[in-house]
Write a structure and sequence with these properties.
The protein contains 16 helices and 12 strands. The chain has about 425 residues and is an alpha/beta fold. A 7-stranded mixed sheet has the order 2-8-7-6-5-3-4, with helices on both faces. The protein is globular and about 60 Å long. The protein starts with 15 loop residues before the first helix and ends in a 5-residue tail after the last helix. It binds pyridoxal-5'-phosphate.
């Protein structure tokens, strides 16, 4: 008898959490690593969140509470959804989770049966893909195109929709590409969904980066197009917008109250409820008029960093990088760099078993970390199916400009270090 269940072997992971131990290993040898791998803003959460959390703890608001989320917080979420998206949702349509992440897997558990198809962006947040086989569904990656600024065409989506399609994940602004679909693109995508999908198909619109949008643009939710509010789960949270990843507060707004209650039952089964003092802190964030200017200032800083780093990255031989419209990531194409450094040839020389475990961008990622002390994420960390032959890295700009510049200098140095790469590869350690 096997120790673990069959399903458990079908679950993927988020590699961002796997890079940490490698960084520690490198740093334990005495050299600090420039960390361009981080998926969280390098800012402190606003003071008004901290004050409210402390106030609530001192009030002894630290007991079990409503598994769906505190009504005070759900009211604030519903108000904000209605104000920012001109929707008409009630607090009963809202369910609160410990972060933006849990509702991804929960949605797959809630809506998908064996054999149902789940469409998700690739590259995309890894949890969309990692859950699919675990729930017995079929993964259908929707490949984001570099030449479309990491969006996709309505035709591409249409070609993937079948009678088995049950759930469609969308994520704008996107992790890892920073891509943002225009209002017109979203409109055409909505038209395809309305015309091709039955009423039981759900769109999971991951809008966790909704407040980090550049170039004077404003976030647009797909739920605002005619008919879409009846099919869309809007997911968001405090982790990115308020630099509060450790607060673990996220939420989803569902098309019907019944669906929010089904999510609530998943909460009951998994963790009962979410810390009430943090929910009150999150409520304070949503209600405080200082929050919008605070987020706008943070976004401006990300935008300045984006412009500076984009220029420097594009100056490196073998790297081309698109300008992201939001979030805090750059997603350069490193095909040329991998080719001139010998990474692609080295990868091709690996035996099949090792080839499966790594990729050219992974080899470069590990080489850059171990030999040039700069941490980035590889393409494979954002969806593996159909990613062969695609050579990209994700760089986070959640660090001071000088640190980012040093990181880019190290990437450039790694790109020129052909002898170093050959030696690293031949040693055969830490290749994935
Ligand atoms: N969705 C996307 C697109 C993300 O990038 C992340 C975090 O990186 C999440 C969801 C999860 O956020 P949280 O930390 O709030 O669970």
């Amino acid at each position: 008898m096997a120790l673990y269940s069959d399903q458990m072997h079908k679950m993927g992971t988020e590699n961002a959490f796997k890079v940490g131990p490698h960084i520690l290993k490198v740093e334990s040898r005495g050299t600090p690593v420039v960390k361009l791998n981080l998926g969280e803003p390098d800012f402190s959460a606003p003071q008004w969140i901290k004050d409210e959390v402390i106030r609530q703890i001192e009030k002894d608001n630290s007991h079990y509470c409503d598994p769906k989320g505190l009504l005070s917080f759900r009211k604030a979420i519903a108000n904000q959804m209605n104000e920012t998206r001109a929707l008409n949702v009630s607090p009963e349509h809202v369910c609160v989770f410990p972060g933006g992440k849990p509702s991804i897997g929960f949605s797959q558990q809630l809506y998908c049966s064996k054999g149902d198809e789940i469409i998700y962006p690739s590259p995309g947040f890894p949890i969309y893909e990692s859950f699919v086989r675990y729930v017995g569904a079929v993964p259908v990656p929707l490949h984001l195109r570099e030449d479309q600024n990491f969006t996709f065409t309505p035709r591409q989506l249409e070609s993937l929709i079948t009678p088995k399609t049950k759930l469609i994940f969308l994520n704008f602004p996107s992790n890892p590409t920073g891509g943002v679909a225009t209002r017109d693109q979203l409109h055409s995508i909505a038209d395809i969904i309305m015309s091709q999908c039955g009423p039981d198909v759900r769109v999971y619109s991951d809008e966790i980066y909704e407040n980090i949008v550049f170039d004077g643009q404003r976030h647009v939710s797909i739920a605002t197009f005619p008919g879409m509010e009846k099919q869309t789960i809007i997911s968001s949270g405090l982790s990115k917008s308020y630099a509060w990843t450790g607060g673990r507060i996220g939420y989803a707004v569902t098309p019907t109250i019944e669906e929010a209650d089904m999510f609530k039952n998943l909460n009951i089964n998994y963790f009962s409820c979410i810390p009430p003092y943090n929910q009150e802190g999150a409520r304070a964030a949503l209600e405080n008029p200082q929050s919008r200017p605070w987020m706008a200032d943070m976004t401006k800083i990300f935008e300045k960093r984006r412009d500076a780093i984009l220029k420097e990255l594009n100056a490196i031989d073998g790297i081309t990088c698109r300008k992201p419209g939001g979030a805090f990531y750059l997603f350069p194409n490193v095909s040329g760099l991998c080719k001139r450094l010998g990474v692609i040839d080295a990868y091709e020389s690996l035996p099949g078993r090792l080839k499966q475990a790594t990729s050219p961008s992974t080899l470069f990622q590990m080489f850059a970390l171990y030999q040039h002390k700069v941490a980035v994420m590889d393409r494979q960390s954002f969806g593996t199916i159909g990613a062969n032959g695609l050579h990209f890295l994700r760089l986070s700009i959640a660090a001071e400009l000088e640190t980012l510049r040093e990181g880019v200098r190290r990437i450039a140095a790694a790109g020129d270090d052909t002898a170093g790469f050959r030696h690293f590869f031949e040693k055969g350690e830490n290749l994935f």
